């Protein structure tokens, strides 16, 4: 006799559309007659081991739709990275509650958790269907054309740079915008989509896929500043030297590491300030400003791609369909099938778990400080409809009288 | 014989709607039969002394409308603060080009420039009509209910905090968001409009209208963190100690001052980082993150209040009408006439020029770390239509089995 119980949880950094996936799971699961309960775990895997569950079967469809359109993780999230022992506790709780389907929405760390729990259940002979649902603004999951959450964050970054470029054109100087992305430069590269006219910024883009050399950087900035009388620069927080040491951590007083051993890169303006100081000191440019986009780029309410919303909903729905109609665990992935359309497939957990995708070489210009048209074609449809546009006055100069 | 020549320029920091005012001037001026030319000066007063003019009479209405909807200053701006000699040069250029009407869109420094040029023209017996058109995200012009540009920036700040609060609820810790505003806390206070539920952030708001004491701040944060298990804090970049020394400049390695003698507060993450370090060190809280909203809050493309757009357009239109139908120089001001409606009046330049409005006491809660309902009523209609909203799952707890 089947219990008909399902559990869903959200892990890792929140996104603008992660609740779409949650609601996709809940509403789709409630359509299956044998499903008796849809539980949500509060704060990801931590909520599972603590048995902090809420019954989503008792939530209205109407409120679920409103929550779906709300950014960040409605169930709460966690940065815990379960080891084998932690996964054992997860499994014991799932078994105690007779959970038959486990859906975990998250990035590559989360997919690794799903992989271990899936293995553990199989070893114990307990019938548990485990599905990982992709989510990350970093766009760094392998096997996916792109990941839900990335398009909306990319839209924020593109809009931010479109505006920063206009601001910088109005009051010329050097502007450095630091964007999230530890290993993958996709989000930083999205800054290029804020560019419309040939002389618009960002004029330089620094990605973690290329080694960052300070001398080269200063020479690039100098050249652009001389050409345009100003310079807008997009920098990934993950830029590093040839040895792989993050530029951000080279200057941090006290390096903070999370449970995954990662250095804290976000939530500090240190990298932008360092780069601005170098430009002021070495190039003698007076007006140099740095912004660190920080949490705004993943949390800002009111900047979302409708394509991203739709797909985030669908990966949740498809996860349930794969679980109900298929016979294996896996990770839902987005495949591009047209310009633009997408379909979904279920990849083996081993193909995704713990792996990191970085920007393909074909997306990075030979200069190393720009993107290619292939990247623009890749990203543009994902940003969705209604992208704001910038317009200029056309020149009609007036003859000088006093300064002739 | 009248030349029928008009000059318009934009000064100070760009806003999301300053081009609405520009286009309001241009389109309204072109309706008057005796107007032969509408010139725009590039980069504010600097463009005037350099005679860098463009002829806006040769721009299509259609493109002007597109430019109106584009943020930042389409003519370019400047931080130059003209002294008497600089104003003399402005006046000489205006006279050489037979300019009869001078419209300058800007903040209180710009209004002071208009005041000096107006005096100079009168002293020389040259018939020049000088009108200042209000603009500033700081909302610090006296005699105005509010200033164009502020509502859109306030909307950005409110949306940013609504999102940051959701993010912080998902991954609890302390979040510090630093908002622009050297002397006036209006924009920082707008963070309160991102709050929906009683336990939402921002839990603490620090304004330049109140003396900032680090010990008191740490005690406030500790209390909120103990109450909510997290704490979202809005801080004005202009917070200062009892002697008036900005907290930001107390730690800056090298203090940068602009032509107005103002310390650089924006374009650096130093203040947020300092406050985060204090919270980590003194309170022992591990997850502490700081964001500095920087230029995003005034330049972000795609976050604008429709009320702000409309009013920014109207102050431009009214400036021309006051100039054409009235007989005195002045500064256009917004008056509130209903909940919500506005009208416009022309104040004497002396009433506005060089003065700074700060937040009225009735808008600041007795605690000094929150706003009042009077402020919420004041600001809410200005944010415009279509404000995004945040929704939550309603609790339906599940009984524990293993951890009973």
Question: What is the N-to-C order of secondary-structure elements of chain A (H for helix, E for strand)?
Answer: EHEHEHHEHEHEHEHEHHEHHEEHH
What is the CATH third-level topology name of the largest domain in chain A?
Answer: Rossmann fold
Overall helicity of chain A: 25-40%
Report strand % of chain A. Answer: 15-25%
Helical segment count of chain A: 14
Side-by-side strand order of the widest sheet of chain A: 3-2-1-4-5-10-11
If interface size is counted as residues with C-beta under 8 Å from the partner's C-beta, which chains form the largest one?
A: A-B, 87 and 87 residues
Uncertain stretches of 5 or more adjacent residues of chain A: none
Count of β-strands of chain A: 11
Structural class of chain A: alpha/beta
Biggest β-sheet strands, sense, barrel of chain A: 7 strands, mixed
Number of domains of chain A: 2
Shape of chain A: elongated
In the CATH scheme, the class of the largest domain in chain A would be Alpha Beta
Rg from Cα of chain A:
23 Å
Note the quaternary state here: homodimer
Distance between the termini of chain A: 93 Å
Mean pLDDT of chain A: 94
GO molecular function, one term (chains A, B): 6-phosphofructokinase activity
Catalytic activity (chains A, B): beta-D-fructose 6-phosphate + diphosphate = beta-D-fructose 1,6-bisphosphate + phosphate + H(+)
EC number (chains A, B): 2.7.1.90
Pathway (chains A, B): Carbohydrate degradation; glycolysis; D-glyceraldehyde 3-phosphate and glycerone phosphate from D-glucose: step 3/4
């Amino acid at each position: 006799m089947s219990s008909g119980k399902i559990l869903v949880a959200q892990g890792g950094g929140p996104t603008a559309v992660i609740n779409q996936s949650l609601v996709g799971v809940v509403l789709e699961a409630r359509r299956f007659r044998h499903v008796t309960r849809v539980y949500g775990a509060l704060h990801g895997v931590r909520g599972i081991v603590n048995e902090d569950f809420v019954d989503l079967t008792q939530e209205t469809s109407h409120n679920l739709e409103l929550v779906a359109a709300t950014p960040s993780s409605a169930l709460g999230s966690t940065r815990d990275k379960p080891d084998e022992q932690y996964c054992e506790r997860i499994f014991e709780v799932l078994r105690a509650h007779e959970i038959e389907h486990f859906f975990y929405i998250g990035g590559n760390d989360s997919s690794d958790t799903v992989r271990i729990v899936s293995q553990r259940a199989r070893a114990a002979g307990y019938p548990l269907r485990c599905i990982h649902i992709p989510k990350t603004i970093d766009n760094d999951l392998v096997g996916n054309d792109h990941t839900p959450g990335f398009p909306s964050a990319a839209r924020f970054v593109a809009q931010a740079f479109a505006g920063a470029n206009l601001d910088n054109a109005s009051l010329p100087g050097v502007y450095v915008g630091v964007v999230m992305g530890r290993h993958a430069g996709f989000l930083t590269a999205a800054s290029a989509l804020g560019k419309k006219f040939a002389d618009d910024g960002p004029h330089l883009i620094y990605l973690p896929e290329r080694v960052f050399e300070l001398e080269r950087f200063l020479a690039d900035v100098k050249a652009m500043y001389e050409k345009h009388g100003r310079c807008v620069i997009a920098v990934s927080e993950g830029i590093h030297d040839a040895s792989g040491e993050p530029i951000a951590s080279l200057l941090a007083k006290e390096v903070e590491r999370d449970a995954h051993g990662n250095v804290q890169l976000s939530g500090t303006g240190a990298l932008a300030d360092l780069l601005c100081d170098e430009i002021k000191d070495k190039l003698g440019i007076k007006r140099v400003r740095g912004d660190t986009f920080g949490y705004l780029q993943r949390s800002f309410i009111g900047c979302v791609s409708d394509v991203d919303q739709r797909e985030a909903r669908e990966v949740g729905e498809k996860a349930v369909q794969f679980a109900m109609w298929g016979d294996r665990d896996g990770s839902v992935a987005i495949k591009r099938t047209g310009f633009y359309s997408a379909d979904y497939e279920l990849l083996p957990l081993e193909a995704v778990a713990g792996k990191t995708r970085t920007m393909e070489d074909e997306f990075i210009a030979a200069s190393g400080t720009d993107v290619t048209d292939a990247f623009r074609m890749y990203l543009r449809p994902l940003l969705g409809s209604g992208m704001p546009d910038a317009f200029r006055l056309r020149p009609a100069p007036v003859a000088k009288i006093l300064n002739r």
